[in-house]
Specification:
By secondary structure, the chain is of the alpha/beta class. The protein has a seven-stranded parallel β-sheet with strand order 3-4-2-5-14-1-15. Strands 16, 17, 18, 19, 20, 21 and 22 form a seven-stranded parallel β-sheet that branches. Strand 21, helix 29 and strand 22 form a beta-alpha-beta unit. The longest helix is centred in the middle third of the chain and has 47 residues, at 662-708.
Amino acid sequence: MSLAEKIFGTFSDRELKKINPITKKVLALEPKYQAMSDADLQAQTPALKERLAGGETLDDILPDAFAVCREAAWRVLGMKHFPVQVTGGIALHRGAIAEMQTGEGKTLVATLPAYLNALTGEGVHIVTVNDYLAKRDSEWMGKLYRWLGLSVGLIVQGIDGDSRRRAYNADITYGTNNEFGFDYLRDNMVTYKDNMVQRGHAYAIVDEVDSILIDEARTPLIISGRGEDSSSLYTQVDRFVRTLRKSVVVELEDKVETDEQTDGDYVVDEKHKTCTLTASGIKKAEEYFKIENLAATENMTLAHHIDQAIKAYGVMKKDIDYVVKNGEVIIVDEFTGRLMIGRRYNEGLHQAIEAKEGVKIAAESKTLATITFQNYFRMYKKLAGMTGTAKTEATEFTEIYGLNIVTVPTNRPNVRKDYPDAVYKTVNGKYRAVIEQVMECHKNGQPVLVGTVSVEKSETLAKMLQRYTRDFNVLNAKNHEREAEIVAQAGKKGAITIATNMAGRGTDIMLGGNAEFMAKAQMRKEHFCENLLNSEKPEDADPNAVELLLTESNGHGDTTDENILAARKRFDELYAQYKPAIEAEADEVRKAGGLFIIGTERHESRRIDNQLRGRAGRQGDPGASRFYLSLEDDLMRLFGGERVQSLMDTLKLDEDTPIENRMITSTLESAQKKLEGRNFEIRKNVLKYDDVMNQQREIIYGQRRKVLDGEDISTEMHNMLRENIDSSCKQFLAGDVKDEWDFGALRRHYQGWLTTDADFHYTVADYDNISVQSIADLLYDRGMDILTDKEKRYGAPLMRELERICLLKCVDRQWMEHIDNMDQLRQGIALRGYGQKDPVVEYRIEGFDMFDQMVDSIRESSIKMLLTIEVRGAGAAPKREQVAKPTGEGFVPGNGAPCVKGTPKGQPVGGVKGGVARAGIWVAGAGLGIGLELARAVRHAGHGDVRLLVFKGIAVYYPARPVGDHHVLPIGAKAEGRVELPVLHSLVAGAEHHQVAPGGYGGPVREPVLHGLGQVIRYAEAGYVHVRIR
């Protein structure tokens, strides 16, 4: 705590001083609303809405709204908010994070601010970590909201667009962070406003806010389309990597050559989780793939695949970072231990792991739309969250989201005992001590929850424990389906549960066991649901229908289904039967000391350790916790283990003797703080780059929204025509000497839509009568004549729709290509750091240059399409078509959602597919980086199949169907036809310009021929830059 906080108190202290008087006002209103009839209490909702309409604020009506909701919860749910829960609800309404310990009833707390803010009619989103909790809470708490006259919606995976729209139109909507984010992206990909599902972002309450806004903020939300299949190259590279020798070091020395620090073919840096090929590995790669130089630009794709393959073998570990299930590689979340089904590593790493594990290699994907969770949740006018562990991440919450933390007192004092860490010399010594402690607790009837950091370590510990008892449960990502069931029973007398990390988060561990899960287990045992579904042949009952019925047996949703009602009746009978026995067992467990938490390794985040401890001592129950560590643990080994090792050696301690020392705890906390800081920087860096995209995203989505709203954009289209013509005329008719104006290029540029072969053939005598402005006016008038004629033929309504169709299609196509271009720009932008330039600043500058070029392309392609488009059927406008379809997590059945992107990651450079190429460009001295930029730009301009080669530092573009035998025109090669070949000064400092005359050779010219990427594109489109290769 800082000196200022000691003097003035923390934000939480100051905020609680403001909140406590409001809490007292709410509690003081209890007698008033207790005395009301049900009808009178329900009538308070429209009365409160009227007060808002009359000019009062939410803060003005808060005491009454909270008191009404509190009384209604007692009548409908049989639960009344404790004073501390009212305090937590006020903190949430004020846009803060309510830090409340496990078991303090956060689900009920959220009803107070949700009810209050829903009265505005703008909608409230309650965000949960999984579909199960969203469904449970929407049904459970939904009874309260509906009783009070509010509507409730639920967003879960698999529902169609119409269902989503109804859910978002409800007063209060429950769903997961992924679904809310994906729906936002999909809404900005639809072609008709009616296909949009969300209606705005007014107020969100995020449950387990640290998990959603911090742990999951490391990777952006991405809606993908299908990319190209390059599985054969992954398989080839995998075979090669299997022949290499791996060398592992704790940390590579920056000032020492890699080859001097290792004798392997590739080296793994454990601390930074990186892999690097050594000189011997590079040599083996060149021999294996029969290439001269792996570092050559033409081998860039191969080198990238090798890098991902050695990372798959060196860094990514099975049953720790991922599991293989049903022939699929599924990512395991390192913080929660949950399976992240549907998520994939990017940049080809997932495919490399699939090759390593011998499962089917999926096709690479294309990014169609993307946003980070940070930027998504910052769109809400007001944001709040709940969690039990937020303090260690306070800086990030404040800096990124503007969220402050209010620590809400517990309803009952916390009596859990947190014992000091016990450190052992070896892992085996530590595990023996853990098993000894487990068996001692088991003997005394005290339940134990053993937390591990990975699937692998949980299974290792389970095998060792089997020698002493088989009466235990293992919970990890491999059996996450039983997660809630196993965790719910972890508080039974003498229970032993081994769980990865924070598995089962969101399910309370109740001492004595959980009557709900015991009732369900009995229903399974007696095949109750199977008999309901198929009384004649229960064994033939659909397993999915059985599970659904079991889920609904303790559900809260209204229904008239006879099977569900029968299942609920049986569940209630069994629950009533088990409840008294559990209460008696809970008393025995309390006498035994409550739940004992054993941590087998410190996590790199203190928050995760605190969450594990927090599973014990729920609602004033007794409990205990202790961490057992060893010098061989990753955190100890990588950060300061040598000091502890020397201490143990000095004291001559064996592997079964623990050491408890404040120095060890301080060393660990220091290491954890460093790692937390590093992880924060990683997340902040992701956000810095996405902030650039976010500004561009808002502009594009705003433009789309105008189209979808049906606004008249005819004036904008006319302005686009004017701006495009003025820009082209300034480009092709530059300078004061009219004899040097390039009328041919201008004619070719607009050939087929504004010009013909007969245009712009002037003699010297004509020069006095023409100007840049007169030619621009001529072209503009022609364009307006075409548009006026079309409007007469088709009618104004149809013409307005055609304008929307053209603009929408061009915006979508160019924007999706732009996402790809920005993604590829980011891949290499970090190298600018070697030139003493800030990569983020460079990314921002070049990103907005590319955005400007994209806007130019949208302007020209939209107006060109409008001028050339014709309607086949009289009076009927063509339907708006989606540019591409999402796949995977981004797909929603039955909804108009879309999109496609450019070259997928890992695709060979020469394989960009499209139509027929119209032009080729080569740039001398540009190198690969700028070559790639130009290749994408030329493709942007509609050149179809453009290919790129880099030949001794020369980036060369050529048509997909080259003329002659050669594909490359290096400096000094002979060319046919007059060709201007500039190197772009704006992008490549100090580069030379070259000109090739008919039958001549490349050589420098005095003045730059072209400046900037946009001009190169326009020259290429005009057919002016065209190379025929002999």
